[in-house]
Amino acid sequence: MRPDAHSRTVRNAMKPPVPVNLPARLPAARQGQSRLLLPVWAAPAAHLLLTSTGSMTRGLEQQFSAPVSVRVLRQYVGLPTALEARITRRSVRGGWWCREILLCAGTVPVLCARTAVPPDARRLQAATRRLAGTPLMTLLFDGDSLRTGVARGPRRFGRDPDGHWWRQTCYRVQDEPLLLFEALLPAAMAPGSLPVC
Which of 20, 58, 82, 118 has the highest CB neighbour number within 10 Å of its CB? Predict the structure, then answer.
């Protein structure tokens, strides 16, 4: 990738609408879809990261052999997307806690993510609000395994028209739902070219 093209990618990734627009464009949910239905050879790095049963943050740290940091784009109380409401079987109304972040290897964004928690999940909303710049994995995982009381529902995978490979997961934490959308940015496909510090 040319330097100017790489700079545009990073600038575009830092725009707050990125995590919002990606899940809004996803196709209708399919119950029970838990495998990546795209060819493995199309993007081996994406396939390995997206199909991992562990934390994405930990997977990126292993891929880049360096710490991965959280850059919070925005956190707010508001409306979910229609798809988020449908997957969690909730109505489209206010009161959802939404958190949109970038995960960065060094200074380069490699993943954008959006967490959405419905208003009736009060304990979970309180826990996610306390995260600030802490990775979500601290709430969901103990090492490579899910924490006690955390269950993972069916996952959906795909690739959007702009080439972002994504996965969407519905977790239940102490029986309260949390919807997590994660999309890999182009830099995640070529870890050897990043200026990781």
Answer: 118
Q: Distance between the two ends of the chain, CA-based, in angstroms?
A: 20
pLDDT, tens digit (0-9, with 9 covering 90-100), for 90-138 = 887 889 999 999 999 888 899 999 999 999 999 999 999 999 889 999 8
Q: What is the mean pLDDT of the chain?
A: 77
Beta partners for 158?
166
Q: Which of 62, 64, 83, 107 is nearest to 179 (CA)?
A: 83
Q: What is the DSSP letter of 126?
A: H
Residue 13 CA to residue 186 CA, distance in Å, equals: 10
Q: Backbone phi, then psi, for 90, in 5-degree steps?
A: -120, 165
Q: What contacts 86, CB < 8 A, 6 or more positions away?
A: 28, 29
Q: Check residue 6 and give its pLDDT.
A: 40
Determine contact, residues 115/128, Cβ cutoff 8 Å: yes
- Residue 116, CA distances (Å) to 5, 79, 134 in order: 31, 9, 16
Average pLDDT over residues 143-171: 86
CA atoms within 13 A on the CB side of 163: 9
59 membership: H or E segment, kind and range:
helix 56-64
**Amino acid of residue 19:** P
Written as one string, the DSSP assignment of 3-18 is HHHHHHHHHHHTSTHH
Indicate if the pLDDT at residue 21 is higher than 70: no
Question: Which pLDDT does position 43 carry in this prediction?
Answer: 66
